[in-house]
Design a protein that fits this description.
The chain has 163 residues and is α+β, with helices and mostly antiparallel strands. It has one domain (2-162): YbaK protein (Alpha-Beta Complex), CATH 3.90.960.10. It has 5 helices and 10 strands, in the order H-E-H-E-E-E-H-E-H-E-E-E-H-E-E. The chain starts with a helix and ends with a strand.
Length: 163
């Protein structure tokens, strides 16, 4: 839990430093997108589903991407693979994902605090005035203004969602 608390603290400090418009929402511990969206009172499309993807480029090189899609969509692994010109893409192992993200699966932030983790966001998430995500904890979420997210996180906006 210490790493998650540290990641949560880094997030709040970053948002405060930039004067971001956000709200902290306390709720019962939940990591599933549908269930936590109901607890927070919004449509799953406004939730950020954050997944770490591993892409192989040739035989020796691996890259990792933090892929953020609307909660009612799935990560399009073929699209992520194509962005890198990769030969193979899959979800990163839970241990790798949690190490790179600094928090447990189900609580991964739509921000990268690790230079090995490139941040991609699907434009479908950015159509709302704000979106929601678990804040490196299962019992605490953030509602964040999309405009502030784009300026602070500077994600690469690409079509990486399907379904």
């Amino acid at each position: 839990m210490a790493a998650a608390d540290d990641t949560h603290g880094k997030l709040i400090a970053l948002l405060d430093e930039h004067g971001a418009a956000y709200r902290v929402i306390e709720h019962a511990p939940e990591g599933g997108t549908e269930a936590v969206s109901a607890l927070r009172g919004h449509e799953p499309a406004q939730a950020a589903k954050c997944i770490v993807v591993m892409v192989k480029i040739g035989k020796k090189e691996k890259r990792f991407a933090l892929v953020v899609v609307p909660g009612d969509k799935r990560v399009d692994l073929a699209a992520v693979k194509a962005l890198y010109g990769g030969t193979y893409a899959s979800f990163a192992s839970p241990d790798t994902a949690e190490e790179l993200a600094g928090s447990a699966s189900g609580t991964i932030l739509p921000f990268s605090f690790d230079e090995r983790l490139e941040l991609f966001v699907d434009p479908g998430l950015l159509v709302h005035p704000e979106f929601y995500f678990n804040a490196a904890r299962l019992d605490r979420s953030i509602a964040l203004a999309v405009e502030d997210y784009r300026s602070i996180a500077e994600p690469r906006v690409e079509r990486v969602a399907s379904g």
